[in-house]
Write a structure and sequence with these properties.
Blueprint lengths: L28 H18 L1 H9 L1 H5 L5 H28 L1 H14 L7 E2 L5 H34 L3 H34 L8 E2 H18 L2 H10 L5 H5 L2 H15 L5 H28 L1
Parallel strand pairs: 1-2
């Protein structure tokens, strides 16, 4: 009031203070500088070392940038959290190993074979294969969440909002597991095709078979991100939507070539099973881009 500041009313210390530094990015430059002035004033009352730090890093602070070592420490912490979560999932996978290994054996069974066609070459190969399968299955399960944890670190460089980032994550997760599921569902076709060249009794080394299945599944999951990458490039204006819609035949041929590189067998059935869903997903992403721009 006219007599001074903070002279009317009662003041109570809060029971809890919740801070989100991302909110600072919503402030204007004037408000950020005013906040910096308040911090600078407090540092003079508290510690000259803090004052020197604020003075030295003035530009970084008002531009809301972190020092390099703080960035490095944050990245290191995120990697450690991701690794710890992966280890936890690996422990669960190891305990429930029969369930997961049966999923990996389904393509072989659907191809007309069974476990009797798999053998171990060394005494310790069974244990080695179990550890390898546990590792790769854990990587596949935790891959989207790991990307989310580390992705928040690089989000400021992408210049996208939190809601948009989370939507990208949801799409990524759906496409990733769709790719994994597609791989396991069509792998028997590739196995039949490859084994059809053998004239003798089929005996597969367990290490080779499980490496083939897990790595191809992971490859499919990553490859299914192509539509999402295209959506991101469209939203950023790097690719124009007209360049895709006016050249759909050429786009289909490119997807066909990409599918031929990705699919392990190269047989026509696997090739088109991969190509048509991929093309359909890209069309969905084009539609989403058009719809979001129209609404905006």
């Amino acid at each position: 009031n006219s007599y001074g500041k903070n002279l009317i009313g009662s003041f109570y210390q809060p029971e809890l203070v919740v801070s989100d530094i991302d909110v600072l990015k919503s402030l204007s430059s004037r408000e950020v500088i005013c906040g910096y002035a308040e911090i600078l004033k407090s540092s003079l009352l508290d510690s000259f070392q803090k004052f020197k730090y604020l003075d030295k890093n003035f530009n970084s602070i008002i531009n809301l940038k972190k020092p390099f070592m703080e960035h490095l420490q944050e990245l290191n912490n995120r990697i450690l959290v991701s690794a710890a979560f992966t280890v936890l999932i690996a422990f669960i996978v190891y305990i429930q190993y029969p369930f997961f290994v049966n999923l990996l054996l389904d393509p072989l069974i659907n191809a007309g074979y069974d476990e009797s066609n798999i053998f171990a070459l060394t005494i310790y190969e069974g244990f080695q294969v179990k550890l390898q399968n546990t590792f790769w299955i854990s990587i596949i399960i935790t891959f989207p969440l790991t990307l989310l944890i580390i992705g928040y670190f690089i989000k400021p460089a992408l210049d996208i909002g939190t809601i948009t980032f989370l939507l990208y994550f949801v799409f990524f997760t759906l496409l990733f597991y769709l790719g994994i599921g597609s791989s396991l569902s069509i792998a028997h076709v590739g196995i039949e095709f490859l084994l059809s060249f053998n004239e003798n009794e089929i005996i597969l080394r367990s290490q080779n078979y499980f490496q083939f299945i897990t790595r191809v599944s992971l490859l499919f999951g990553i490859s299914f991100q192509l539509p999402l990458v295209i959506l991101f490039l469209l939203n950023k204006g790097i690719i124009k939507v007209n360049s895709l819609t006016k050249k759909r035949p050429e786009m289909f041929i490119l997807i066909l070539i990409f599918s031929a590189v990705i699919t392990p067998t190269g047989d026509p059935v696997s090739l088109f099973i991969f190509t048509f869903p991929m093309y359909f997903l890209i069309e969905i992403m084009i539609f989403i881009h058009k719809k979001s721009n129209r609404d905006f």
